[in-house]
Specification:
The chain is an alpha/beta fold. Helices cover about 55% and strands about 5% of the residues.
């Protein structure tokens, strides 16, 4: 059962460690906690070593990865997943540690779908069911007692039923946070008691009507949020407007080793540069000549082709870096093998020395080439990020100017920008470019 502070997952992880330690499968009962960010790198070639480092921390222990579904997020997420799957079968780690992934059900299912090997390696699951309304009221009573406040209304059958009804409705909502929300209600009740009590008393008591009002207030708040709808937004509206709240998803069982029974957070909206540049239902403005419209379509197509070429160039650089990295590893292995042969057989020392020196030189050249490619890739990535940032600033400025009242996407043309419907034009000089 999920406890009041939401630490049931950690407690369960410790129990796993104790059981496997007692069975002599582990050398230590310690639980090593880490997050997804400790497994995923920020640069090419960084993810693998970070993942290995965390696995080494968990050798002989329990490695507990909280919010594990975030392993599947980010540019280098797949590297972390592949490294984790591959390393778990290696002699260094296989059978020498317990790995527990904890997360929300839907997100964990998506993570496990990313790699079939990951799914088969985490076949056991523990589901934390939601608290019943009766348990929520008892937990609420215990939280109030911590602040030296009695909840005597629970002892009266009539009052108890009145409190149980809205609590049951809360527990049925997909956005209900179990113990976390119970703790929020308890804090509200404590504040009300302290605000309405003027005399000093050793033991306070919260009246039934005030307790009922607190529960009904939270029910009303959650129903209001759950019924709220998110209005459609223009692809670039995020530059000047904040996102409206999105109701949570219903909790359910997970395929991961550990799951949470709280609501699943909604995925973040895509950034503006990840969206389609064509506005839904856009049309040609009245009065736009055939020549302007034709040129606009050509420029729009050229912009798309240029974007694809940039992405292709980045991908080629990444592939070249991976090949250089693989070559460097092979040459390192070759050099190590030659050193071992030299230690065992001194008869061919001169020849082996020559070959070792050649291998060292090849290894050095491969490392130099790999570093050169890495520097070029990072430079090109920085240029691309700056270009996108500048384009976002220009688009935001054009929208702020309000030249195109419909809010269509602006297309770069020679000497300035034209809205994708063709009827509005802003020069580079007007944009101070």
């Amino acid at each position: 059962m999920w406890d009041a502070l939401g630490t049931g997952k950690t407690t369960t992880a410790r129990k796993f460690g104790q059981v496997y330690y007692d069975l002599s499968f582990l050398s230590n009962v310690e639980v090593v906690e880490c997050s997804a960010s400790q497994l995923i790198g920020q640069y090419i070639g960084q993810t693998g070593p970070k993942t290995i480092k965390q696995l080494e921390r968990g050798l002989g222990k329990v490695l507990f990865v909280d919010e594990a579904y975030r392993i599947g997020d980010g540019l280098f997420a797949q590297y972390a997943i592949n490294e984790l799957v591959d390393s778990m079968t290696k002699p260094k780690f296989a059978g020498k540690m317990v790995i527990i992934l904890a997360g929300y059900d839907n997100d964990m299912n998506n993570l496990l779908k990313a790699n079939e090997g990951l799914n088969s390696r985490f076949a056991d699951e523990i589901v934390f069911p939601s608290l019943s309304p009766e348990h929520c009221l008892r937990l609420l009573e215990s939280k109030l007692k911590e602040s030296r406040i009695n909840f005597s209304a629970l002892q009266d059958p009539g009052y108890y039923d009145n409190l149980l009804s809205p609590m049951s409705k809360l527990c049925s909502l997909s956005s209900w946070g179990n113990a976390r929300d119970v703790q929020t209600i308890a804090k509200r009740m404590v504040n009300i008691v302290f605000q309405t009590t003027s005399t000093k008393m050793d033991q306070l008591d919260i009246p039934h009507d005030q307790a009922l009002q607190c529960i009904e207030d939270m029910l009303a708040e959650k129903l209001k949020r759950q019924s709220a709808t998110v209005k459609p937004r223009h692809p670039f509206e995020g530059l000047v407007q904040s996102m409206e709240p999105t109701p949570g998803q219903a909790p359910s069982a997970s395929i991961s080793t550990l799951t949470k029974s709280t609501a699943t957070p909604q995925p973040e909206r895509p950034l503006p540069e990840e969206m389609d540049i064509d506005h839904p239902g856009q049309s040609r403005d009245a009065g736009v000549s055939d020549a302007i419209w034709t040129q606009l379509q050509k420029d729009k197509q050229a912009a798309e082709i240029h974007e694809r070429n940039l992405q292709k160039a980045l991908q080629e650089k990444e592939n070249a870096f991976r090949k250089a990295e693989e070559l460097e590893r092979k040459l390192k292995a070759e050099a190590a093998a030659l050193r071992e042969i030299e230690a065992k057989n001194r008869a061919g020392e001169d020849e082996l020395g020559r070959r070792r020196e050649e291998a060292r030189i090849r290894e050095l050249k491969a490392k130099t080439e790999r570093e050169r490619i890495q520097r070029e890739l990072e430079r090109q990535q920085r240029i691309e990020m700056e270009r996108k940032k500048k384009e976002q600033q220009v688009q935001a400025k054009l929208r702020f100017m309000g030249v195109c009242p419909v809010g269509y996407q602006w297309i770069k043309q020679s000497g300035g920008y034209r809205c994708s419907a063709g009827g509005h034009w802003v020069s580079d000089a007007a944009l101070c470019l």
